Structures are given as C-alpha cells and as structure tokens.
Amino acid sequence: TAAQVVPMQSLGADVREAKHSSAHSEWVYEKPTEVEALETDISTKWSTLESLSTAKKEVLDDDLARELYAEDTRLLAERHGGKVATLQQWAQERAAYLEKTEDVQTIADAQSALAVLDAFDKEQQAVTSAVVSSLHTLGADILARKYETTHSQYVYESPSDITAHETDVDSALARLTTLSAAKRTTLDADLKRELEKEELRLEFSNRAYDFAQYVDDTCLIISPFVSCDRTESWTRLTYPVCKILCLVTTVSAEATHTVPRK
Question: Which of 188, 182, 260, 183 is nearest to 221 (CA)?
Fold first, then answer.
C-alpha cells in the first residue's frame, strides 16, 4: 500500500545518501544502484497492481450493476406472472358461470339472467381494456429490457414464458367471449319462449273469459227450457257441469233449429 511504499522510498533515499567521511576514511553504500533498481521495480509493480485493481473494479462494478438490473427484470417478470395468475383465476370463475344453464321459468327469470350476462360483458370489456392491456405492456417492457456494456450483457432468461402466459390469457378471454355469445343465444331463446307462453296465457285467459260469459248468457237464455236444478234426479250434476250441458244443448238446438222442451 501507499503507506508502505512511501517509507520504503524514503529509506532508500537515506541509504543512497548515507556517507561517512573523516580525516582517516570515507564510506558510502556500495550498491546504491541495486537499491534504486528495487525501488523502480516496486513502483512498476505497484502501478501494475493499480491498473489491475482499477480494471477489476470496473468489472465488479459492472457485475453488480448487471445483476441489479437482472433482479429488477426478474421482479417485473414475477409481477407479470402474478397478473397472469389473477386473470386465469378470474377467467376460470367466469367460465364456470357462463357454462351454467339457468333454470328459466318466467319472463322475469330470463330478463334477470340477461341482466347478469350484460354485467359480465361489461366487466370483461373493462378487464380487457385495463388489466389485459397493462399485462401486454408489462410483457413488452420485460422483453425489451437489455443490459449491455463492454464487459457484459443481459436479457431476460425466459422470454418464451412471457409470450406463452400472454397467449394463455388471450385464449382464455377469447373462450369467455364464445361462451358469452352462446349463453346470450340461449337466454334470448328462453326469453322469446317465455314471452310466447305469456301471450298464449293471455290469449287463453281472454278466450276463457269470453267463453265463460257466453255460457252464463246462454244459460240465462235457455233456463226456461232446460232445468239446471241440482235437485232433479235425472241430472245429478254440479252447477258448472250443468252450465256446460246447457251450452251443449243450446248448440245442438241451434244446429237443428229447434229448442228442446222442458
């Protein structure tokens, strides 16, 4: 280290400059060139070490920066995987709903089921435009990430996982769209059926009412000629059945242009 080299150089200077001189003799260190050569060799090696250290630090700094970048990329991939798992779970639950056949017995049942389906279609549209869109954006960002320097480079290790997951999500949503369309066709048919049934019920009710009025009016007309008294031994019929008998008698009489006598 510098703390060791500087004292060494100072000591070498002292050795080279050391000199004994007197009236009788004088002396200087016999190998000053060797001391100087050693100092030069050490300085050269020290410079080499500094260069190597600087280069190694650049590589290590690059390694750290690359691994931090890679870790950030992997965290993004984990978030992408979490979004995929959430969407797949959502799609699975919605598919179960779409595959279920509702028990539609009334117009209200059909309208209620269609309202729920309308809500699902809006939900799917919102999920597609927001969550799925952000998923594709995140996936594109991950695949586009690239670290590159003179020392190393990095791209995400599993790009095929990103594209495969997004394909799975797109396929699941496309299946939901197909199931929704099929369910809507079924529910529309159920609603049409129930509306037709209601029309038939109303038509029957109206005709039954008219028929009942007709029977009552007819019985009033023919009551002087045909007895509906429940005490008569020859009928033994309930009053409603007696009314029908009256009607049949009237129709028969009209068909023969005669009126039965009492």
Answer: 260
* pLDDT tens readout for residues 153-204: 999 999 999 999 999 999 999 999 999 999 999 999 999 999 999 888 888 7
In sequence order, the 6+-apart residues with CB closer than 8 A to the CB of 98 are 120, 176, 179, 180, 182, 183
Assigned token pair, 169: 């999500």
H helix intervals, 131-158: 133-144
Ramachandran sector of residue 247 (left: φ over 0; alpha: ψ -120 to 50; beta: rest): alpha
Indicate left, alpha or beta for 184 from its phi (over 0: left) and psi (-120 to 50: alpha). Answer: alpha
How do residues 72-82 score in pLDDT, each as one tens digit?
Answer: 999 999 999 99
Q: Which of 84, 85, 92, 88 is nearest to 139 (CA)?
A: 84
Pair 81, 165: CB distance under 8 Å: yes
Contact 215, 133 (CB under 8 A): no
pTM of the entire predicted model? 0.65
Looking only at the bridges linking them, the beta strands covering 19-21 and 146-148 are unpaired
Q: Token pair of 228, please?
A: 């509906």
